[in-house]
Amino acid sequence: MAQLGRGSEKPLSSGSGGVTEKVVVGAAIVDGQGRLLAAQRADPPELAGGWELPGGKVDPGEDEHTALVRECQEELGVLIEVGERVGGDWALAGGYVLRVWFAMIAEGRPENREHLDLRWLEMEELYDVAWLPADLPIVRAVQGRLNDGQGRFNKD
């Protein structure tokens, strides 16, 4: 994701929030085999080596879905289809909020353009990587939704 620290591990709300919010978007990209794509941070140094969901900051004037598609194109070289939202707003350092959606790859294969590594994780492997603290509760939420047969690619 964008280069900013990940702070809190708790959801803030499920509302849409105000116009002055600083928003980061994330993609819980799940393939046809039910695996989740994880990305290992290259920087900044304090986050390097930690694992996260792909995504990044929403640019001024950009809607969140457009930002998520753009970020996945830039970071991974893929075109995604955005699905259901995962949870509400998740607090990050610096006053940012993280909003995550399920996604599937519509075109391309993930390329490692900005990260140390990319890895497709089976559900039983989800905790084999060192998730950044802010991403861990989101991974738990994704796992719960997938285990219940929910989530994936139903659009909002």
Please describe what this structure looks like.
- By secondary structure, this protein is an alpha+beta fold.
- It is built from two helices and eight strands, in the order βββββαβββα.
- The strands form two sheets. Strands 1-6-7-2-5 form a five-stranded mixed sheet, with helices on both faces. It has a three-stranded antiparallel sheet with strand order 4-3-8, with no helix packed on it.
- A hairpin with a 4-residue loop joins strand 6 and strand 7 (96-107).
- The longest helix has 13 residues, at 64-76.
User: How are the strands of the largest sheet arranged?
Assistant: 1-6-7-2-5
- The unreliable regions are 1-19
User: Proportion of β residues?
Assistant: 25-35%
State the order of secondary-structure elements, H for helix, E for strand. EEEEEHEEEH
Radius of gyration equals: 14 Å
Distance between the termini: 22 Å
Give a quick account of the main beta sheet: strands, pairing sense, barrel closure.
Answer: 5 strands, mixed
- The dominant shape is globular
Short précis:
The chain has 156 residues and is an alpha+beta fold. The protein has two helices and eight strands. Helix content is 16%, strand content 33%.
Write the layout of secondary structure elements.
Layout: E1 11-13, E2 22-29, E3 36-40, E4 51-52, E5 55-57, H1 64-76, E6 79-91, E7 96-107, E8 117-121, H2 136-147
Parallel strand pairs: 2-7
Antiparallel strand pairs: 1-6, 2-5, 3-4, 3-8, 6-7
